[in-house]
Amino acid sequence: MDNRKYFLIVNLIAGRGHCKNIFPRVKAELDRRNLSYDTHFTNEPMEATNVAQMVIEAGFTHIVAMGGDGTINEVVNGIVKSATPYPLGVIPAGSGNDFAHVTGIPTDPMEAIELLVSGEERTIDLGYIVGDRYFVNGVGIGIDAQAARDVLGMNHLRGTAAYLYAAVKEVILFKAFPVKLVGTGWTEEREFISIGIANGKYCGGGFKLAPRAEIDDGLLDIAAIEDFPSRIKRLINLPRARKGTHLGLAEVHYHQDPKVTVSSPAKLVAHIDGEVYRLPKSPFEITVAAKMLHVIATSPQSGPSN
């Protein structure tokens, strides 16, 4: 019998109700396995961060985030405030589930539970917006951020279909913005339509915006896309950003660096791990927090996946 004690932080509205739909199955499976666990259902933004902080000293051995990438982000921000390297478990139940995709955690809830009880810990990096928040996947500024906002307002679409619809809409409507990026020995100062500062390869429900990113390499991947000559060019090249074949485009500027400073006179639209995010006052710095998080994301048979 598993001697670990799990604390589940569950966001039932994640995935536009998908989490609520699958939770009875998850509970039944946890009970069938005779696991020791308790559950907290979140009701408001940032609640998961506060709850994660509180339960760290309550005798549980693992904190489990059940929801989407935004839920994982909140739980992680609670965990890292503890001096103890607390292991994170994940039962994916969101719209995009990019963190699961990056780490190799199964999106099927029964398989995710199997990994939770029999898997091994993997140590990964986080990104850090200095003075504010950590992130697991990335920060997006521009089209992908506006698309994330659009997805939140959709009633009839969810998952990949919602992200694709929003992305196509914003490719047509979105206006470029001025930004200066300063890294280690390089500077980009242009009119951009999208800037991704990534820890993992995927964002926005499977867009491979940072195809060279590794979640444990001690680097951030900065993928900055300046505006194209026309809306048609934007539409033609959108599928390349999804597949990760866009790096050869002249409009794409790609850097790997442990830190980057961002400044702009414009009001920037941003997301953090797929959730609407208000950026700090310009200029602000984003750094990598190397080997910051222990996550149950490796099956004994397969080894690390990314």
Q: Ends: how far apart?
A: 30 Å
How would you describe the shape? globular
- As a percent range, the share of strand residues is 25-35%
CATH class annotation of the largest domain: Mainly Beta
Q: Give the helix/strand class.
A: alpha+beta
CATH fold-type name of the largest domain: Tumour Suppressor Smad4
Q: Give the CATH architecture of the largest domain.
A: Sandwich
Give average pLDDT, whole number.
90
Summarize the helix and strand pattern as letters.
EHEHEHEHHEEEHHEEEHEEEEE
- Biggest pleated-sheet summary: 15 strands, mixed
Indicate the percent of residues in helices. Answer: 25-40%
Radius of gyration: 19 Å
In a few lines, what is going on in this structure?
This protein is of the alpha+beta class and 306 residues long.
Protein topology:
Layout: E1 5-10, H1 18-32, E2 36-41, H2 47-55, E3 62-67, H3 69-79, E4 87-92, H4 98-103, H5 109-118, E5 120-129, E6 134-135, E7 138-142, H6 143-152, H7 159-173, E8 177-182, E9 187-198, E10 220-226, H8 231-243, E11 252-257, E12 259-263, E13 270-272, E14 275-277, E15 284-298
Parallel strand pairs: 1-2, 1-3, 3-4, 4-15
Antiparallel strand pairs: 5-6, 5-15, 7-9, 7-13, 8-9, 8-12, 9-10, 10-11, 12-15, 13-14
Helix pairs in contact: 2-3, 6-7, 7-8
Description:
- This protein has 306 residues and is of the alpha+beta class.
- The chain folds into 2 domains: 5-119, Rossmann fold (3-Layer(aba) Sandwich); 135-290, Tumour Suppressor Smad4.
- The protein has 8 helices and 15 strands.
- It has helices at residues 18-32, 47-55, 69-79, 98-103, 109-118, 143-152, 159-173, 231-243; strands spanning 5-10, 36-41, 62-67, 87-92, 120-129, 134-135, 138-142, 177-182, 187-198, 220-226, 252-257, 259-263, 270-272, 275-277, 284-298.
- It has a 15-stranded mixed sheet that branches.
- Strand 3, helix 3 (69-79) and strand 4 form a beta-alpha-beta unit.
- The radius of gyration is 19 Å and the shape is globular.
- The chain starts with a strand and ends in an 8-residue tail after the last strand.
- The model has no long low-confidence stretch (mean pLDDT 90).
